[in-house]
Design brief:
Elements lengths: L7 E12 L2 E4 L1 E6 L4 E5 L10 E11 L3 H11 L3 H4 L9 E9 L4 E10 L1
Amino acid sequence: MNFSGEPFRRRIASNLLWTPQGVIRHPLVTFHAGGGFLVETCAAPDRLAATEFHAGLLVADFPTDYRAAFDRLKAAGGDLTTLLPATVTENGVWVVISALDYAALRLTPQSQIRLL
C-alpha cells in the first residue's frame, strides 16, 4: 500500500513489534488519517519529528478486553511468540507490553500493558 501524500495521524516507534510472521526490531508504525498504517524499521526514531516512543513490544489486533487478555497471558506464562497467535483477534486494538524479558520474550512480574 502506498501512502505517499496521505497525512499521518500518529507515528509510534518501539523496541519490538509482534506480527504473525515474526518479531520486528526497531519498528516505526505510521497511522494514517484514512485508517491504514505502514510498518517500517528505524534505528533512530528520536530523529523523526512527531514520533512517539513506547518502550516494549507493540501488538496489533489485541482483544478489546485487553486487560483481561493480558491477565490470561500472565497466568499462562511462557514464550509470547507461542501465546500471542492464540490471543490476537481481527479488528482488535493496538497495545504496548512493557517490562518484559526481551531475551526470552516472556512476561515478568513487572510487565504492564497499555492501550495505544
